[in-house]
Amino acid sequence: MFYESAFLFSFSCWREETKEDCIKEGEDCTEGTNSTEHSDRTQRKTADTEQTTGPKGLHPIWTTMETEKTQTTAAQMTDRDLSEQIKKVTKENHVRAENTELMLSFQKGQVTLGQYKFLLCSLYEIYQALEEALDRNSNHPAVAPIYFPAELARVESIEKDLQYFYGTDWREKIVVPRATKRYSHRLRQIGKENPEFLVAHAYTRYLGDLSGGQVLGRIAQKSMGLKNGEGLSFFSFPGVSSPHLFKQLYRSRMNSVELTEEERNGVLEEAVRAFEFNIQVFDDLQKMLSVSENQQNSTHSKPGKTLQLPGTIINTLPLLRVALGLFLALATVSIGIYVL
Question: pTM score, two decimals?
Fold first, then answer.
């Protein structure tokens, strides 16, 4: 299926770029062309159609993107590139993440409204913690190169979706599992103690959502019957006119971050931890959804259970009332006799 090639959700971040991906993103990825030629064609296309152009007044980084030679294609990657190392150490976790029940629902195009709403609630908590930490450490030498709030920030987009589904008082209605709270706590913790670890979480989340956003947005829209993009702002990146070029730039910037051997190992361990946090969140969300559905089913069921006897159906609730009445009557009579 077409969406299986776009590794799901936050776990598609380290996927190899392919010619097919570029075609899906509306770009020309003819082999043998360098990034400068690619940029020239992109500029010509964006002048012809508004669909491939971001809003006016974009972050200055887009000027840099058109002039800076990108050197992060698969052929140019080395074993010392941080992005390649993260891809290698998280490979097993990636497979496990794809096989969680929630992600399988996306793969099959069967995501439910309940699943999506619960997911948005957790994503809001996670991105709020991540973006607060990134903002606080925007000048940190490890964070500054990969700090793109104008292009990647998700909190406001998720807020729009939550308001659409839950109403203006959505903040009072959202609920998240414990795994989400643990994830958010970890993000705030490393923001204070080890800002360089934020590189692993930002890469895993942002590039994952950017890579699979368009495809997964279409799946969600079709599965839930949403119209005009309502409730799907999370999947939209209006500040990124060329996802393919932006991902190349992002990897290039991330690979340029100078880290000691100890810090690099710490970032790699944090990348594995990021995947584990996401897996735990997805599993907990599915459990929470099951509990919610069971409660709804019990609410809609008929009051009072029935006791099945051969040839007879006795409603247990009236039976208890009769028994209680007899008990009270006997107690009253007994007390009266004792007093006499």
Answer: 0.70
Give the domain ranges of the chain.
2-300, 306-339
CATH number of 2-300: 1.20.910.10
Q: What's the pLDDT tens digit per position in 300-323?
A: 555 544 333 344 333 444 444 444
CA–CA dist 162, 124 (Å, integer): 9
23-32 residues labelled b (16+ CB within 10 A) or e (exposed): ebbbbeeeee
Cα 277 from Cα 200, distance rounded (Å): 12
Q: How do residues 74-86 score in pLDDT, each as one tens digit?
A: 445 567 899 999 9
Shortest CA distance to 200 belongs to which of 61, 336, 86?
Answer: 86
The token duo for 237 is 């990146």
Provide the token pair at 108. Answer: 């099959």
Provide the CB-side half-sphere exposure for 4 (13 A, CA): 5
